[in-house]
Amino acid sequence: MSEDTAANELAAAAGRPVLEEAAMEGHTTIGCGGPVDFLVEAVSTGRLQAILQTAVRHHLPWIVLGQGSNLLVSDQGWRGLAITLAGELDGYDFHGNELHAGGGLLLPRAARLAAERGLSGLEPLAGIPGTIGGTIAINAGAFGAAIGELVLQVEICGEENCFRLEREELDFGYRSGNLPPGTVVSRAILALKPGDAAGIQAAVRDFRARREAGQPRGRTCGSVFKNPPGNASAGELLDRAGCKGLAQGGAEVSRLHANFIVNKRQARAADVLGLMNSCRRRVYKSFGVELEPEVRFLGDIGLEPLK
Ligand code: EPU
User: Fold this and answer.
1) Where are the extended beta strands (E) located within 108-218?
2) Is the pLDDT of residue 1 over 80?
3) Which residue has the CA at smallest separation from atom 37 of ligand 1?
4) Measured from the CB, is residue 227 less than 6 Å from ligand 1?
């Protein structure tokens, strides 16, 4: 089947236009990466399933693209389909102390909406530049809190069906969860606690300010490596191994926080990857610790072996 047929069928499934050869530098926070074959918006669970079914029929690998905040796409791009969630899949509703959110709802927005209603729980997470679904999938967190702690229920969609998983069935760990592979978080229910709106809003501002003070501004993909088991953090190990300020092409290891790589001037994904390899090797040589990437790779891109 030709690319034209796939594009037409995807557009019919989505009920909206499909972007072809969509450059990922415009869809990732770090601002690099080549094109994906197709980019399409899913506006309901029905549309989402139809899109997934079309992808499977055309043997197209797919990903859900949130903010693209935790993603490094190969400069050569990726032969597949990126799906963004919109319409009812990035909407929200409050029921008592619960936030019922579409998987595409942005976490900073969710935190602000909850704070306005005097609902507490999301404050430490307010600065995370991701979607509810994307952060639940990896159990993203900040300041000792993680989104998984708030989740009461998630709705998951694959090409066959959509189903719900209750809190008891979810097993969140540090930056990990047990959501079935090949599925999308279409909706989630978060349990919040009532409190004083002004106090909660002040806490949101405070957490955001703390994050901004400790992490670089500019184009990054968030923490590059996960914190290793034990007490030392990735940032501290990278710092002690002398990584701050290392540069390759247009990319530089932040001088403020060594676990961030900043796209200073039209960096390529290869520059970011090169820095990750050098930094990882330095930490391994200095401390014998094998750092694991927190950023997800897409396309023909991956770390060199350490040994
Ligand atoms: N540190 C250094 N040098 C550095 C950076 C950090 O010595 O260059 C030290 C700090 O002084 C501190 C320790 O390392 O004692 C930890 O640093 P920080 O408090 O910045 O936290 P982190 O573990 O590096 C984690 C998350 C962030 C989250 C912050 C805020 C991971 C990998 N990172 O960072 O999450 O925003 O806590 O709580 O878990 C992300 O996941 O993308 C992310 C940004």
Assistant:
1) 119-120, 141-142, 145-146, 151-157, 162-166, 184-191, 193-194
2) no
3) 142
4) yes
